[in-house]
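Run: sequence + magnesium ion -> complex structure.
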Amino acid sequence: MKHKGDIFQNSNKANLGSYVMFLDMNSYFASCEQQRHPELRGKPLGVLTYDSPNAAVIAASKEAKKFGIKSGMRLRDCLMLCPDMLTITTHPAWYRKIHVDFMAILRSYCDDVIPKSIDEAVANFNSYRLVYDDLTVVAKQIKADIRAKYDYLTCSIGIAPNSFLAKVGTGLQKIDGLTVITPENIDGYLATMKLTDLPGIAAANERRLKLIGINDPLQMRHSSPALLRKAFGGVVGNYWHSRLNFGEVDMYSNAQNRTMSATRTLSRQQSQNRQTLESMIISLCTRLEQRMVKGGLFCKEVTFAIRYADNTDWDTTVKLPDPIQDAIELRNYIKERMGVYERTHGLESLLTSKVINLTVAIQSFVKDTVMQYSLFDNRMKKDTVRKVMYQIKDRFEQKDVVRKGSEMFNPNVMKDAVGFGSVRDLGLNKEGNVRNTYLLEEELLPGQPRKIVKKPKEIAAPAEQEGVDYVNEDTYTDVPGEPLTYDSRLMTYD
Ligand SMILES: [Mg+2]
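>> structure
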């Protein structure tokens, strides 16, 4: 999975000053709803993607969390803990608008800001050492600026020598926090934490760490890279050593692509139905296809991972004979691998009712401009058709006017899967509305009528903010060649 020359990352030397700021909006989707609906403020509230007792609450308000409600719990279980909990279904357009606004506030203080998810961003202030004496003053000002625009929204800010520890800092105080981690105080903080409190350490990692005698984050920080390599089975161990010892491995100075991934956490109801799981794989592949078409890229490698309810995983990486872009082709390679495994292990299907998460990641990209079409004559036509289809989609305000066959496979699943797109794809159009050029479906802001609008030809598509980007909002960060090491709990939006 590693490709020499494909890995771009900052130098690994330790930064001892605390100049990286991580911002995490508190109870994001729930707070956004409470911002818009004052009558919901101060009340336990769960945000759902669809209204059913089996639906998962993807965000719980601060008030709901006091009852023990956590993101990812099923509505039915939440109501057992808090019978008075109110619910509301998601309004992604609204969450995206607020995302764009808080990103603009951060960028007014620092020009090196990367969104990590719809409600998280990391700002690298290393080149501002002479500009700001005290980053906590900047952090307080950022909080005040957000509050001035959205009075109900709070965020937690962590400041540390690297982005991982800055993220750890945001978790130390749950609401409206501000924590500075330094080489002097880090051991004190780590001593209060469990291994699974570290972002990216799931139960399975914890087991492996404990097996080799590492029982808590403090021990982990003071373990040798060699021991951590043993626990993580390779170079990922070095990354962990570096994270806990002030190296930067999670923020890349070079926006060069490494991995694009699309991932979905499933409700119990969704995993009962094998057809739904199959549809989900197609929708994940379609999401990646969209991003490749937009970026003018083909991939040479695909990884597919299934996580089960007992925290076990199954994954496979396919090196593709030819660079591809097509969702159904990606899906076919995945299916073929699954089929081989199922047959050799006498399994009926890997897609059991215990599946809780599916991830498709692609890597090793080739620009379409350097594709040797002579080698792929039979494919050239198809690739052109695909591009034209997306161009047609772009010409309409509502993207569901034109649909591809693979999108028709199961429209409801599709809508669910592409609902948020990638945060890096968010931009403002001429009217100041948030547009995501990668979304297949448009949803409307409240009160906005749905009508089919054909864009006049002369209006160009909105400029992409930072060119094509390969970090999906679903993954906290992608370690080169290791897109699947992070815990799926990072995909809920606290
Ligand atoms: Mg949050």
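>> summary
The chain has two domains: 19-161, 259-491. The chain has a mean pLDDT of 78.
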